[in-house]
Please model this.
Amino acid sequence: MVGYDPKADSRNISSFEVAVAGSVSGFVTRVLISPLDVIKIRFQLQIERLSRGDPSAKYHGILQAGRQILQEEGPTAFWKGHVPAQFLSVGYGAVQFLSFEMLTELVHRTGVHDARDSSVHFVCGGLSACVATLAVHPVDVLRTRFAAQGEPKVYKTLRDAVATMYRAEGPWGFYKGLNPTLIAVFPYAGFQFAFYNSLKRLYEWVAPAEGVKSENLKNLLCGSGAGVISKTLTYPLDLFKKRLQVGGFEQARAAFGQVRSYRGLLDCARQVLREEGVQGFFKGLSPSLLKAALSTGCVFFWYEFFCDLFHRMRQAHS
Model:
């Protein structure tokens, strides 16, 4: 069970173990979904239509983009920015799950609401994600810059990227896209935790779990479903975030097609609507949904797996 449950005996693990479970789940998931993440970011940043009918479009499909990236940049391109991405995943997972457990326990202790309600999970999930975002957003910007750059590379190493960005854009350069990120992450994470909770209850009603394997399958499927629903509902804000994060980085985007500069969230939304139409808000949705299904399913699966492992280890030593 994700979140505080006074009736569950699996809650007797420490805050440190909760943070470790969140970190490891983020680490494993990031390794698996990085190629889809790179393709998604390339789609989101492309001004041209994602269509074979547009001769100026560099990418127009998941398989085509994968083949072209592999041909032009080699297999390592699918893990561009992987080091900052892992810092992001490990730090985000630890802060988010630890905050979520603490917030749901706080709700239980106040006695105002049932900590197991989906509405409580929505609010606590959104707040915990905002806390985690504030902690790791500079790493997210670095990860996006690495994944977005082509050849020749503008940033050679992580240290070079930090020094160059600080020198050219100042400390606030590391917080580009923070507003749409916070606006997007609250409902996205809130929906993730709420739908995960609701889907697990539905799953248990339709097919009561029997044994560890059935429980693991339930966690994986419900996490995947929660990820797809949440991503679809909040996707345009994720696209705006990515466009804003590469502001001031236009020279590295020249090889990929047209580039644009945006003055803020509303200006970005207006320009995308005017030049790319409503469908422009959903560029990269296909790889994003694949990524959301895999990543959210894996995150919840591995988090529950390691929490259960720590619980059993404690029982064995008691």
Q: What stands out?
A: The longest helix spans residues 211-245. The mean pLDDT is 84.
